[in-house]
Amino acid sequence: MGQYIVRRLLQAIPMLLLVSILLFALVNVAPGGPLSQFSRSRRMTAERAESLKRQFGLDKPLTVQYIVWLAGNDWMAIDTDGNGITDSYGTRKGVLRGDFGFSYQNREPVLPQIMDRLPNTVYLMGLTLIVVAIIAIPIGIISAVKQYSAFDITVTTLSFMGQAIPEFWLGLILILIFYVGLDNPVTGKSLLPGGGMYTIGAEFSLIDRIRHLILPVSMGVVGWVAWWSRFLRSSMLEVINQDYIRTARAKGQNERKVLYRHALKNALIPLVTMIMIDFPYVFTGAIVVEQLFSWPGMGRMYYDAATSRDYPMLMGVLILGSMVIILSNLMADIIYAYLDPRVRYD
Fold first, then answer.
1. How far is 83 from 79, CA to CA, in rounded Å?
2. Among candidates 147, 322, 126, which has minimal Cα distance to 236?
3. Is the pLDDT of residue 86 over 60?
């Protein structure tokens, strides 16, 4: 297993390099640019625009911009224009040495800003996935064991509704009901906050933090519970009819032990794939949730960077997301080997 993990990590290096090339090209060839938002300003003269292009390094060929972004300018003090003048982009170590450059919007380093927002996203999305697992796994098991019962039919109907409801629409409805419509009978204020992580200006309060979490977590939980529970139900139905389950029951083993030790362990294998697909949201955030509830996380940062054409910030978030996706796939393979003894990577 150790050799397999090392081999997969080494394979991830060229994969990340290829992904970074594709992402850098797609981001930079998109219509508009970092200076497009200033084009309508009367103060933005042609001379000022050219000065900013040179300052940001946007006047150089795309390949040169990528090499500077990846390796840093101190590795390549060269004359790219043939005019005898060494190109200068300021002090840059490059992504390979942990320098993601400076944001075009505030001229601050990208990596510290990402690290500042990352805990907020892990806090929100991590809690959301935990709540989803606590609700979806028991529902999926009970629905499979009590197939076609009143509980199963009710859960199936609600699951289809949860899958069909648009996420942004659900968030707006939650805000309209619990923030605009309903009032707290004690304080006379809105029943639940409509956004943010905490009440600005107030002292730390666990109750206040929980109240700010209820709506965004609920918005994310509805769709994921619907998908996960239905997926686990289908997987459990396939497993509990296998010969080894009937053999375990014939040996007189307790039904709970049969379900949770034998059936569930194998039924979780397909669900692990779905969980690992959703796992990157813990680090990259959900754009709709964070934007709708003004949550200062990675998803909102990505949206702001995309709309403002902040290429360094955009690339920083995309590369982080790519790394998490690759690592989540590796984690899925490791969990497969734990759940199913037949899976070996030696």
1. 7
2. 147
3. no
What's the N-to-C CA distance of the chain in angstroms? 6
Cβ contact 252:297 at 8 Å: no
Q: How many residues does the chain have?
A: 346
Write the DSSP string, 36-87. Answer: GGGTT-TT--HHHHHHHHHHHTTTS-HHHHHHHHHH-GGG----SSSSS---
Biggest CA–CA distance in the chain, Å, is: 86
Given this model, what pLDDT does residue 41 score?
63
What is the rounded distance in angstroms from the CA atom of residue 59 to the CA atom of residue 30? 16
Tokens read off for 39: 């084009």
Rounded Cα distance between 297 and 244, Å, is 47
Q: Which two tokens stand for residue 173?
A: 């409805």
- pLDDT bin (cut points 50, 70, 90) of residue 39 is low
Looking at every residue in the chain, the average pLDDT score rounds to 83
CB atoms within 10 A of CB 130: 13
- For the stretch 238-261, pLDDT in tens is 888 888 888 888 888 888 888 888
C-alpha 40/C-alpha 38 separation (Å) is 6
Nearest residue to 296 (alpha-carbon basis) of 226, 223, 212: 212
Span 97-117, average pLDDT: 86
Residue pair 67/17 in contact (Cβ under 8 Å)? The answer is no
- CA–CA distance from 210 to each of 140, 207, 294 (Å)? 27, 5, 16
Alpha helices (H) in the chain, listed in sequence order: 2-29, 46-56, 62-71, 110-145, 150-164, 167-175, 206-239, 243-250, 255-257, 264-278, 281-284, 287-292, 298-307, 311-339
Alpha carbon distance 8, 226 (integer Å): 32
